[in-house]
Amino acid sequence: MKNAIHIVLLLLLVFIARAQYSNQVHFRNISVQDGLSFPAINCIIQDQRGFMWVGTGVGLNKYDSQNFKAYYANPQDPHSLSNDNILCLSKIPGIIS
Q1: 55 burial class (0-12, 13-18, 19+ CB within 10 angstroms)?
Q2: Who contacts 70 (Cβ-Cβ below 8 Å, separation ≥6)?
Q3: How sure is the predictor about 27, in pLDDT bands with cuts at 50, 70 and 90?
Q4: 38-82: pLDDT as tens digits
Q5: What is the DSSP track for the chain?
Q6: Contact (Cβ atoms closer than 8 angstroms) between residue 84 and residue 58
Q7: Among candidates 91, 75, 73, which has minimal Cα distance to 37?
Q8: How far apart are CA 54 and CA 60, in angstroms?
Q9: pTM above the 0.85 mark?
């Protein structure tokens, strides 16, 4: 009986140790060297597909966990951003969820 209790306690400790390890959060610093359009970030949001959208003072950046794609205002393109200084990002139900 004593051995069974020791085995159960050992299994419980292993389970707790694994659970604590799996809850760790990992961060990766990203910068202009990685493709970010500007070093100062004003806002960040994640869309339903997992893309991170980063608003800076010099453009909107889409990050796919490996690469950035930067979007800028273009006065000749009516479908581009109206301004490069992105101060706030928000999810719009039905469009960005």
Answers
A1: buried
A2: 35, 37, 59, 60, 61
A3: confident
A4: 999 999 999 989 999 999 999 999 999 889 999 999 999 999 999
A5: -HHHHHHHHHHHHHHHHHHHHHT--------GGGT-S-S-EEEEEE-TTS-EEEEETTEEEEE-SS-EEEE-B-TT-TTSBS-S--------TTT--
A6: yes
A7: 73
A8: 6
A9: no
